[in-house]
Design a protein that fits this description.
This protein is mostly helical and 65 residues long. The protein has helices at 7-29, 39-64.
Length: 65
């Protein structure tokens, strides 16, 4: 049976639920969110995310050849 959710959609949904769950757990435990508050920290997180996605894309296109 084929799922109506694509792989990318599933990954996005799982990551959003995980992020929400971490935020809720941090709120209940009364600890600060594990997120940078400074602009340089946010840029670092963005760079890591883009690097991860770019590497995943490059490796998946090489495997399909």
């Amino acid at each position: 049976m084929k799922s109506w959710l694509g792989t990318s959609t599933r990954r996005l949904l799982v990551s959003a639920v995980l992020a929400f769950g971490i935020g809720v757990a941090c709120n209940f435990a009364a600890i600060p969110l594990p997120a940078p508050t400074a602009l340089i920290g946010a840029v670092l997180v963005l760079a890591l995310t883009v690097g991860y996605l770019g590497t995943d894309y490059l490796l998946s296109t090489r495997r399909s050849r």
